[in-house]
Automatic annotation (TrEMBL), chain A:
<dbReference type="InterPro" id="IPR000749">
    <property type="entry name" value="ATP-guanido_PTrfase"/>
</dbReference>
<keyword id="KW-0067">ATP-binding</keyword>
<dbReference type="GO" id="GO:0005524">
    <property type="term" value="F:ATP binding"/>
</dbReference>
<dbReference type="InterPro" id="IPR023660">
    <property type="entry name" value="Arg_Kinase"/>
</dbReference>
<protein>
    <recommendedName>
        <fullName>Protein-arginine kinase</fullName>
        <ecNumber>2.7.14.1</ecNumber>
    </recommendedName>
</protein>
<dbReference type="GO" id="GO:0005615">
    <property type="term" value="C:extracellular space"/>
</dbReference>
<feature type="binding site">
    <location>
        <begin position="177"/>
        <end position="181"/>
    </location>
    <ligand>
        <name>ATP</name>
    </ligand>
</feature>
<dbReference type="Pfam" id="PF00217">
    <property type="entry name" value="ATP-gua_Ptrans"/>
</dbReference>
<feature type="binding site">
    <location>
        <position position="92"/>
    </location>
    <ligand>
        <name>ATP</name>
    </ligand>
</feature>
UniProtKB/TrEMBL annotation, chain B:
<dbReference type="InterPro" id="IPR001943">
    <property type="entry name" value="UVR_dom"/>
</dbReference>
<dbReference type="GO" id="GO:0050897">
    <property type="term" value="F:cobalt ion binding"/>
</dbReference>
<dbReference type="InterPro" id="IPR025542">
    <property type="entry name" value="YacH"/>
</dbReference>
<feature type="domain" description="UVR">
    <location>
        <begin position="136"/>
        <end position="171"/>
    </location>
</feature>
<protein>
    <recommendedName>
        <fullName>UVR domain-containing protein</fullName>
    </recommendedName>
</protein>
<dbReference type="Pfam" id="PF02151">
    <property type="entry name" value="UVR"/>
</dbReference>
<dbReference type="GO" id="GO:0046870">
    <property type="term" value="F:cadmium ion binding"/>
</dbReference>
<feature type="coiled-coil region">
    <location>
        <begin position="151"/>
        <end position="178"/>
    </location>
</feature>
<dbReference type="GO" id="GO:1990170">
    <property type="term" value="P:stress response to cadmium ion"/>
</dbReference>
Length: 354, 180
């Protein structure tokens, strides 16, 4: 069964492949919010309406084979086990909101997991494209293609003056949210994030932790995205984000250089201590794991550690989440059991490298 | 009652979370609550929707202060999905596309503030349903270029563009007739 494949082949292409600037940018994501004309939005619609939305969206892409992403499969939330949904959330393929709170929620997922079309989340349609490294423009291009394709069959709620109409007014206009996941240990270690975050906010961009709104910056991973969706064109939004990301990449690189110059041995010590913890621990909490994985990845990027592949951070950050650990164990686990599992999974994964 | 996270231990802690007017109950055991604890304490405090609700409320208060409540007006309500403005303020989300029309006067100034700028869509236009709009935008740009050509005294080119505009306008007329 192909769902099994989705869940068991834990590593999606955005986690394993390497993209441009992937020493700092882990992934790029673009999301387009769309609604169908003459249907009430998911927060108030009838189940009949919800069902019709799923059918008409799925019909518009069913059997289509998009050149770059492969074939598409429909997953209906009510038919999935809680654990399966949790795994999809941890892989960033669906939102927690779709998994837990949606009525008649569904998701159309591409074979390579780069594209997921969420149905009946906050809006009727949310097209999401996820790519490794800094590839926002590429992600936008693919999202636009799918959008054009759906639009041939579905009438969108659109207004001449305020653009695509969305349930929440913070998305109206382009319905576009572009975001980039960045690993910024250098800026954190040199205590610069406190200065940088307000500056980024001033430019109409938001900085958040790895699992979105309100989440902590686990493992020095930050998510940067646009806030403004109305008034600017899609290209302008993406270019503005890209230019800020480019500056952050430059600042992170110079912070790393400065660290190497001023406290090389301390940094090397920190990296190898974390490496030691990860390769020997028998119990590890997710917070500690995230911070050690961040150190390890920094060590790989800076050349202290040579025999480990770079994507270990992206991979293990996802694979050590509670849902995945339980999937890996084949059943529910208590938090203390999870910490043991997490430790053994990390050790096993590191062993594969040798 | 069993803990809804692990489904093993009895639930000893019961949380009621009210998020954007939606009430959710959680029944957890000590262990699961501890693990989830940080996540939901953080989540509830500060989200875009809460910020938005704050902005909407603020707007409301200012209006009330300016106009003393002499006459009590009928609460504004959307005809399509029967959402009221009060409900919208609480949830931070609209019930249907028509709400944007119903609450136009209230929401437009807020949109301008939320998105900084003039509050007009400047991005993609759906190709099929936005067809007429595409033509109109094209005509607008062509008209602008005609002015430039005239000031540069390139009359032949200007004439070509004029013909283009005429044919586009014809298409637009036919479209509007066909639509009605």
């Amino acid at each position: 069964m192909s769902l099994e494949k989705f869940l068991n082949q834990a590593v999606s292409s955005w986690m394993s492949a390497e993209g441009p600037d992937s020493d700092i940018v882990l992934s790029s994501r673009v999301r387009l919010a769309r609604n169908v004309r003459d249907y009430k939005f998911p927060i108030v619609f009838s189940s009949e309406e919800g069902q019709k939305i799923i059918e008409s969206v799925y019909r518009s892409v069913e059997g289509q084979h998009f050149s770059t992403i492969g074939s598409l499969e429909l997953l209906v939330m009510d038919e999935l086990q809680p654990l399966q949904k949790r795994v999809l959330v941890e892989k960033h393929l669906i939102s927690p909101n779709l998994a837990n709170n949606s009525v008649l929620g569904a998701c159309i997922l591409s074979e390579n997991e780069e594209v997921s079309i969420m149905i009946n989340e906050e809006d009727h349609i949310r097209i999401q494209c996820l790519y490794p490294g800094l590839q926002i423009a590429e992600a936008l291009k693919v999202a636009n293609e799918i959008d054009d394709h759906i639009e041939q069959h579905v009438d969108y709620a659109f207004d001449e003056n305020i653009g695509y109409l969305t349930s929440c007014p913070t998305n109206v206009g382009t319905g576009l949210r572009a975001s980039v996941m960045m690993h910024l240990p250098g800026l954190v270690l040199t205590h610069q994030m406190g200065r940088i975050v307000p500056a980024i906010n001033q430019l109409g961009l938001v900085v958040r932790g790895i699992y979105g709104e309100g989440s902590e910056a686990l493992g020095n991973i930050f998510q940067i995205s646009n806030q403004i969706t109305l008034g600017k064109s899609e290209t302008d939004i993406v270019e503005d984000l890209q230019s800020v990301v480019a500056q952050l990449i430059a600042e992170e690189r110079s912070a790393r250089e400065a660290l190497a110059k001023t406290s090389n041995i301390e940094l090397e010590d920190k990296v190898f201590r974390s490496y030691g913890v990860l390769s020997n621990c028998r119990i590890i909490e997710s917070k500690e794991a995230a911070s050690c994985l961040s150190d390890l990845r920094l060590g790989i990027d800076m050349g202290y550690i040579k025999n480990i592949s770079k994507n270990i951070l992206n991979e293990l950050m996802i694979l050590t989440q509670p849902g995945f650990l339980q999937q890996y164990a084949g059943g529910p686990l208590r938090p203390d059991e999870r910490d043991v599992r997490r430790a053994s999974l990390i050790r096993e994964r590191l062993n594969l490298e040798q | 009652m069993l803990c809804q996270e692990c489904n093993e231990r009895p639930a000893t802690l019961h949380f009621t979370k009210i998020d954007n007017g939606e009430k959710t109950m959680m029944h957890l055991c000590q262990q699961c609550a501890q693990e989830k604890g940080e996540a939901f304490m953080l989540n509830s405090a500060f989200s875009i929707n809460n910020l938005l609700a704050g902005l909407l409320n603020f707007h409301n208060h200012v209006q009330q202060a300016e106009q003393p409540p002499v006459v009590k007006k009928e609460p504004l309500q959307c005809e399509e999905c029967s959402m009221t403005y009060q409900q919208f303020i609480q949830i931070g989300r609209f019930g249907c596309a028509n709400c944007y029309e119903t609450f136009k006067e209230q929401i437009n100034p807020i949109l301008r503030r939320l998105h900084s700028g003039d509050g007009t869509h400047n991005g993609k236009i759906p190709s099929r349903i936005g067809g007429g709009l595409h033509l109109r935008k094209n005509i607008e740009t062509l008209k602008q270029s005609i002015q430039e050509l005239i000031t540069r005294e390139e009359f032949e080119k200007a004439a070509e563009i004029r013909d283009q505009i005429r044919s586009l306008e014809k298409q637009l007329d036919q479209r509007d007739e066909g639509g009605n």
